[in-house]
C-alpha cells in the first residue's frame, strides 16, 4: 500500500512538473507570453460575436455574456481533447528512454489546459461583474459543475490518447467530430429556443447541461440541476476508467509501436 | 496484438539488496568460497517483435523479431558487456532490461532491482532553467524530488555550471547541455546502470573527466550492462561479454575470448 501511494505521489509530482514546464515553455515561446492564453480566447469570442450579433443580428439580450460563458467552458474541453489525443504519440521519444506510465502524458495536457482555463475563468467572472451580473450564492455550486466537466474531459481525453497511437487516423476523425460537437453544444444558441422534443434529444450531449449549469449560476443567479450533473458525472466515470484500462493494458506496447 | 508475457516482480527493491548483502556476509563468515553473485535480472528465451506499420492500402507483413531467443543472467556487481552489429537487437535488449518494454515471448525476471537506461538530457525543456531541467530529468529517471534536491549541488558542481545553472538551458552551448545531461544521469545512480555507448561528453577536458568518473563507477561493485562497439572499452571494463547476432546469443563468456571471436567474425564478414 505504501509502495502504491509512493508511486502515485511520484507520478503526481511528475505530472505537475511537466505541466509547469509546458506552461513555461509555451509562455516563453512568444513575445507577450502567457497573455496569449487570455488574448486568444478573447479574439475567438470577438469573431463569433461579430458574426452572430453584428452581422447576422442574431441573439438574445445579454448575448455576449451568454456566448462568452459557453466559449470559455467549451475551450477547456476542446484544448484538452485535441492535444490530449496526440499526447502519447508525441511522447514516443521519451517512452524509448525511460519507463513511465503512459497516463502521465494525457494528464499533463489536462492539467496544463485546466490552469489556462482557470485564468480565463477569473477574467470571465470579472467581466460578468463589470457588466452587471454580480456574484451570487449559487456560485457555491460552481465546483460541482467544474468537477462534472472535468470527469467528462478526462474520460474522452484519456480514451482518445490511448487509441490514437494504434490508429493515427483517429486524430483527423476527432477534429471533425469536435467541430460537430461544438455546433451541437449550444454555445451561441439557447437550447430553450427549440421544441421540447429537440431539447430532450440535445441534452444527451453532456456539454449542453454543463453549459446550462454554468449559465444558471453565472447569468441567472439560480442553482443548477444537480441531479442532471450527477448523472453526467456518473456516466462519464466509466469512460474514464475505460481509458485508464486501455492505457494500462497497452503500457508496454506503446513504446514498441512504429509511428 | 502481442501475447501477454509474464514478467515477474519479486521482492521490493530495498529488501532485495539487504537479502543479497546478508547472504554474501553469511558466506564470508562461514569461510565458504563465495558462491556466484545472485542474479539481478534474468532473461529466459525472450523474443521481442515489432509490428511493421500497417495501413489499409499497404500489404500486411509479419512482425519483425528484433530479439529471437535470448537467455542471460545479470549478476550482482558485475559489468556485462554486449556486442553485436547494428540491428542485432542490442538496444531492444537494454529496453527490456530497463523495463520499458516487455517480451512477446519468454520471461524477464527482475529480482526487485531498479534498472535505468542512462539517457542523457531525457525530457530537457529549452525554456526552463538548468536547475528545473535537472529536477524534471532526474524525476523521469526515477528519483523523487527530495532525492534530487539532495544531489543538486553535486550535479551542478560536476557539470561545472555553478554560474549559469539558473539560466534557461536554451541559452546554453551544446557542450554545457551535454555536461548537465551527463551529470544529471550520472548522479541518478540507479541500482543497475544500463549504458548504450554513452561514455564521455563535452569538450576534451570534460570527456576525460566524465569518462573516468563513469569508468570508476563501472569498476566499482555496481551492476552495469554496457553496450559498446569499442573493443578497447569493452576489454578494459567488462567482466563478461555477450555477443548478439540476429536476435540470438552467439557467444557468451569471458570478455577477451568472446571479443576475439566477435572481431574475427566482423572482419570476415566485411571482407
CATH architecture of the largest domain in chain B: 3-Layer(aba) Sandwich
Shape of chain B: globular
Kindly report how far apart the N and C termini of chain A lie: 36 Å
Q: Strand count, sense and closure of the main sheet of chain A?
A: none
The whole-angstrom Rg of chain B is 20 Å
Number of strands of chain B: 10
**Sheet bearing the most strands of chain B, described?**
6 strands, mixed
**Most residues in contact, chain pair and counts:** A-B, 24 and 33 residues
Give the count of structural domains of chain B. Answer: 2
Estimated structural class of chain A: mainly alpha
The tally of helices of chain A reads 11
Query: How many domains make up the coordinates of chain A?
Result: 1
Low-confidence stretches of chain B: 1-6, 9-14, 26-33
Low-confidence stretches of chain A: none
The side-by-side strand order for the widest beta sheet of chain B comes to: 6-7-8-4-9-10
Structure description:
The complex is a heterodimer of chains A (259) and B (271). By secondary structure, chain A is mostly helical. Chain A has one domain (2-256). Chain A has helices at residues 2-29, 35-55, 63-85, 87-90, 92-97, 104-130, 142-163, 169-183, 196-202, 207-218, 226-249. The mean pLDDT of chain A is 90. Chain B has eight helices and ten strands. Chain B has helices at 13-29, 90-97, 130-140, 145-159, 174-188, 204-219, 231-237, 255-270; strands at 7-9, 39-50, 64-75, 79-83, 105-110, 115-117, 192-196, 223-227, 240-245, 248-254. In chain B, 42% of the residues are buried. Chain B is α/β, with parallel strands linked by helices and 271 residues long. The longest helix of chain B has 17 residues, at 13-29. Chain B has a six-stranded mixed beta sheet with strand order 6-7-8-4-9-10, sandwiched between helices. Chain B has a four-stranded mixed beta sheet with strand order 1-5-2-3, covered by helices on one side. Chain B folds into two domains: 7-114 and 229-270, Rossmann fold; 123-189. Mean pLDDT of chain B is 83; it is low at 1-6, 9-14 and 26-33. Chain B is 39% helix and 24% strand. Chain A binds chain B through residues 3, 10, 13-14, 17-18, 21, 24-25, 28-29, 94-100, 252-253, 255-258, and chain B through 1-2, 12, 48, 50-53, 95, 98-102, 116-117, 119, 122-123, 125-128, 132, 135-136, 139-142, 144-145, 168.
